[in-house]
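ok trying this again, last paste got cut off
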Amino acid sequence: MQLRLRIRGAGRLALDLLGGTHIVELLRPASHLIAGAVVSRGLGFIAYLIAARALGPQDFGRLTGLQIIVAVGAAVSGLGLAVIAPKTIAQLRIIDLDEARRIGGSLLAMTAAGGLLVAFLAVLVGRPALATVQVPGLVVVTVGLAVATALGAILTAVLYGLEATADAAMANVARGILTMIAVVSQAANGLGAVVIALLAVEVAMLVVTGALLTRSRDGVRFVVRLRLERRDLQMLWQLGMPALIGSAAVLPSMWLGQALLSSQPGGLHALGQFGLAYRFYLVILFVPAAITPMVLPALARTLAERRSSGTYGRLVRANLVLNVGLAAILALVVAGSAPVLANVGGSAYAGARPIIVVLAVAALAAGLNNVLSQAAISMGRIRAWLLSDIILAVALALAAVALVPRWLGTGLATAYVIGMVATCVALLPAVLAGLRLIGKDVD
């Protein structure tokens, strides 16, 4: 009997150390998101596998390179606002719902203004930028895709800030279905047709997400108000700028790595193999990606309500278990199955095997970086988070320059590992210091 009680007590202690019931607290609201992510990412994954087979490694490599350029354009258009929107809306809706609605309108207006900046930059450097991945003729479609992606990210971020998990899950499912239809129906028609179809998906998602955002919840509808006030714009600009700088550092370094890879002999073929392997990297991170949008509002709300530092610390540990623990299990499965997985796109992708294994390691570091970044942002340690992103960008870029010419896609995957490890090492001391400070201030 005493042994049983000791075992039970040890189990409770272990559960508490790992985050205790806060794992359930994070998973309960995120259960909708996880279910939605399984459907969305599953359908998207299948769609891109079909595209990989239909397009072949070279055109799939071009699509992979074009998507990172779209991500850069979306980051510029978004002005870093999608990163800070969930926390900002989550805190404001507790204090003043009308102000949260006004901030929602300001977020959309600033993103639209960022879209005009992207369009202007595209006139100057659009064709040379797309030429780095050998798709110079898709400037207009790429700009539209980048701006629509940025606007969609803001609408989704506001949903996360409202902690409307069921609606966010519905949006994810809709995206998966539309992506599946668009990519599969157009893959046989070539790269240009696929990109245009993806633009149509993003435009449709603006309508879907906007409709979900304005649904009534507990008798209250959240309708953004386009009433711009200078103090709101200044606040959002100041909050979003570090995220913009971080994105402006990290995404171009990823673009540099892919452009460098595509410029090597046989580089487009290798980029296509990297693109296929990257799809499995995203599979490993599907649970972290699903719960991440809900973690930051939960952490911010805990601090806003001045709950104990123990509660906050257990939430961080629970997030660590969910991000890194689940990613580790999936990484082992993916890495162990690499010989089989590399061939799902066809025999031309057999060279993706080592890339899949190395990116599985990178996914573990990326999961840890998610945990540290969310904690840092919720604590207000934006400078430390920004510095870690800059370190990630520099480490990834230098490693890519050194490794890609020799090892092609495997070298680029190794650069991802180096960059992710470097950013975690840089951010960890700031997060630990913040946890100690919260313990003094809250308790």
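PB: full thing came through this time. Residues 19-442 form one domain.
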